[in-house]
Amino acid sequence: MTRRGLSELKVGGLTLRGVAKGGVETSLMVPEFKLLFDVGQVVSGAQSFDRILISHGHADHLGGLHYLISQRHLQDRPPPVVHVPAEIEAPLRVIFGAWREIEDFDLTVDLRPVQPGDDLDVGKDLRARALRTTHRVPSLAYCVDRITHKLKVEFHGRPREELVAAKAAGVELTSPVRAPQLCVTGDTQIEFLQAHPEVLGVRVLVHEVTSWDERRSVEQTRHWGHTHVDEMIPVSEGFTGEALVLVHRSMRHSLEEARAVVAARFPASVRDRVHVFA
Ligand SMILES: [Zn+2]
Ligand SMILES: [Zn+2]
Asked: By CB count within 10 A, which of 2, 59, 104, 212 is most buried?
């Protein structure tokens, strides 16, 4: 816990700071990327983020959006860029239109509709791929890659003067390389990871586990479009990244209970890389 009542985890060179309580509130800040994932409520510090990635339209992920944009305006900050699943753009504009009427004020909102498969420019040397997840409403995961520029193979070992001359002549010496750094999958059933096994190789994978024991069965959990820990455990064995961060725990399970499940039931090969977000 930070002094502002937020949870914080530093993994894979990134800071994950915020709240991710299943059905209550999800909003995660990643300051190294200047990205804010979901706005269930306005967590302390969220006002400084210029770019927001919304996974889906449930209130525990989206309910704070109007307030956040309004607060930004009061602070004389520009409206943040808000990437949303394309299906919710039109209803959101209706909601903002209603606020316009209620407040008698024309708040500028910069909504950017996103389709599955879109490749978004989300910052300097950062691209985010949007992938369709499996939930009760249209939902997206966002997988963020860092772009580096590597010398093309044909120039390896060439003398420096030759490279300088080639560059001066307009030859492209490097090619972009994408390194997957972070994937935040939002609310989803386990099928998402089965359909996109490449996500299991991302450096930091943030995935939901809403149910942690038999108080909610796998069937009940799936009915509401979520992941049960019984489904996560076998899939986790294929995780090859640095940190698998489990979020969106239902408040019927304590942090201690969830951590005990990780220690007792997750495969030894991955256990030390599994984190329960407080
Ligand atoms: Zn949720
Ligand atoms: Zn949801």
From this structure: 212
Residue 224's identity, in one-letter code, is W
Supply the CATH number for residue 224's domain: 3.60.15.10
In a domain, 1, yes or no: no
Task: Look up residue 214 and give its two tokens.
Answer: 């038999």
For residue 60, being part of any structural domain is answered with yes
| Structural domain boundaries, residue 146 | 7-276
Judged by its nearest atom, the ligand closest to the C-alpha of residue 40 is 1
Percent of the chain with pLDDT over 70: 99
Residue 2 in domain: no
Least confident of 51-55, 60-64, 150-154, 215-219: 150-154
**Joined tokens for residue 26:** 């999800």
Dist. CA 247 → ligand 1 center (Å): 10
Quick one: pLDDT at residue 5? 82
Of the candidates 115, 177, 109, the one whose C-alpha atom is nearest the C-alpha of residue 142 is 115
Residue 248 CA: which ligand is closest? 1
The count of structural domains within the chain is 1
CB 205 within 8 A of CB 183: yes
Q: Is residue 265 part of a domain?
A: yes
Q: What is the mean pLDDT of residues 198-217?
A: 98
Q: How far apart are the CA of 203 and the centre of ligand 2, in A? A: 24
Distance (Å) from CA 60 to ligand 2 centroid = 7
According to the model, what pLDDT value does residue 2 have? 65
Q: Is the pLDDT of residue 133 over 80?
A: yes
Q: Residue holding tokens 């069937």? A: 219
Does this model's pTM top 0.70? My answer is yes
Spatial distance between the Cα atoms of 273 and 271, rounded to a whole number of angstroms? 5
Strands (DSSP E) found in the chain: 7-11, 14-22, 25-30, 35-37, 51-53, 81-85, 110-114, 119-123, 126-132, 140-151, 174-184, 204-208, 243-247, 249-250, 274-276
